[in-house]
Each structure stands twice: as structure tokens, then as C-alpha cells.
Sequence to fold (149 residues):
Amino acid sequence: MSRRLILVDTNVIVAALAEVHEHHAPSLALFDAGLDLAVAAHCYAEAFTTLTRRGDHAPFRWPANEAWAALESVAAVTRLVGLSPAQGFAAVRDFAAAGHIGARIYDHLIARAAQAAGATTLVTWNVAHFQGLVADAIDVRTPAMLVVG
Fold:
């Protein structure tokens, strides 16, 4: 019997990599728990942006090479999944048709990638962000709910 696939949200990746993040320990523990983890391809772009962002409210400000090396370490222990161009286009269309707007589209794309990959669980620190976006067959949990950090 195969293990259940767990899709990891961008905020969990960032928390696992950034030692100063308030959720670092349980997020890092998720990657060490021997679970079958997957990451949607576009989450790497989101995580890279968060880790390297500049400005007054940028919490991390990592150099590009350090951010990429850290993301490669995540890629080494996870499956890369994603939407086809047609699935991505349909996801945006459906999001708009439902009357949703703004940056929540990225959560919708992550939810759709989880569904397309056959994930049974989506792990995030923003459980409420996925309400109404995730198929009923996908359980949304925090890393702390899956592993003891």
C-alpha cells in the first residue's frame, strides 16, 4: 500500500528554512518525519520571493544563491508536482467565476495542484486560507497537527 501524499504550502517551506521564523521547529520536523511530501512547482517561486524580498518589511533578505541552495534542499526530499498550462488556466477561470479576487489565487493554485497530484493532505500555516478552495477529499492541516516539533 502506498503512503499518502502530502502537499506542502509555501509558508511551511519558508518556515522550515528560516530559523528565525516562529514556526521553524514544527515545519522543519515535517521534512524529517519520513512522510511522502510534494511541492507545487510555483511554490518555489513564491518561497524564493519571500526569502529574498527587500524593503522595510522584508523579514529575511537572503542572497539569491543562499535562497536557491535552501530551496534545492527542499526539492531533494520532496516530489515536484504542478498543473499543466490548461489546468492552470482553468484554475484561474474557476477562481474568477466564483467571485474570488486578489492574491488568494496562489492558494487556489496550490489547492488545485494538490488535487491534480492526488494528495490526501495539504499542510499549511494558513488553514483558513484554504477553506472553500480545497476539494473535500483533501485534508488541510498545520505541520504541528502532523508531527510533534
Remarks:
- Residues 104-117 form the longest helix (14 residues).
- Strands lie at 5-8, 36-40, 79-81, 121-123, 139-141.
- The two ends are 27 Å apart (CA to CA).
- The longest strand covers residues 36-40.
